[in-house]
Amino acid sequence: FTLRDPLTAKDQGVKFADVAGLQEAKQEVMELVSYLRDQKRYRALGAKIPKGVLMLGPPGCGKTLLAKAIATEASVPFLSMAGTEFVEMIGGLGAARVRDLFKEARRRAPCIIYIDEIDAIGRKRSGGSGGGAAGGGSGEEEQTLNQLLVEMDGMGSSEGVMVLASTNRPDILDRALQRPGRFDRHITIDSPTLQDRKEIFEVYLKKIKLKGDVGKFAGHFAKLTPGMTGADIANVVNEAAIHAATALKPIVDRTDFEAALERVVAGQEKKTNMLS
Ligand code: ATP
């Protein structure tokens, strides 16, 4: 897993200002920042700080970005792992990695553990407490999931470790994961709305040399990009800058964006055709 030094996170990390749109989700995560920053105050009143938060939503819409921003704004270390890392593991290695991750997190508390694509290990188990036989994992995945549950159950809410996990497949998750004391809080991060897309464009347009007004550009291109995610928009802006640079232009203009948009949309169509 990757470790993020608290200082690095504070000085160079993703801030709330870098996460465009997502007003409701941001509002909800402010509360998490406050818990992490001010644990003593909550504990003094007997409040239990949530141990697990599930972030739900389609890929590329800012779940990881928001999780990183929480760590930066709360000035705590960010330890992350991807559920998919465990798919190829054998011989109990996955469970051992989970154990090590939590050990490190407790040592560095207050801190955040982020598990991307938790569905890769958190699928409904074939028998027992998960209920139902949808999907089911290999023995290794099941062991990894069990270890995660053991770690979360064994962790007191006063330890200052908050586990954030993301998924775009809540329907296939083992219900045991969402029991009280585990991932009992949910935050939904939907595909960006028109206003969100405008704000995302603004964030990325400010980073390039643009011919024209950022606000007007953002409004115009937000309207042309329904269905695009934050990741797609970041890609469009970057492609536009590359297009301009390739043409040896000193500044990025509207025609570069039109070309970039065409390229990104064509790329998406190709991907869809290959999958279908
Ligand atoms: P996945 O489930 O595939 O990991 P995700 O929801 O975690 O997706 P991110 O990794 O956070 O998505 O987003 C990918 C990239 O897209 C970010 O690094 C960022 O550049 C851009 N992005 C996505 N959403 C936003 C947003 N709301 N504001 C600014 N940038 C965004």
From TrEMBL:
Tell me the superkingdom of the source.
Eukaryota
| Record localization | Membrane; Mitochondrion
Q: Please state every residue range assigned to the domain named AAA+ ATPase.
A: 49-193
The UniProt family comment states: In the C-terminal section; belongs to the peptidase M41 family.
Its protein name is AAA+ ATPase domain-containing protein
Q: Please name the source species.
A: Ramazzottius varieornatus
Gene encoding it? RvY_16876-1
Q: What part of the entire protein does this chain span? A: 296 to 571 of 801
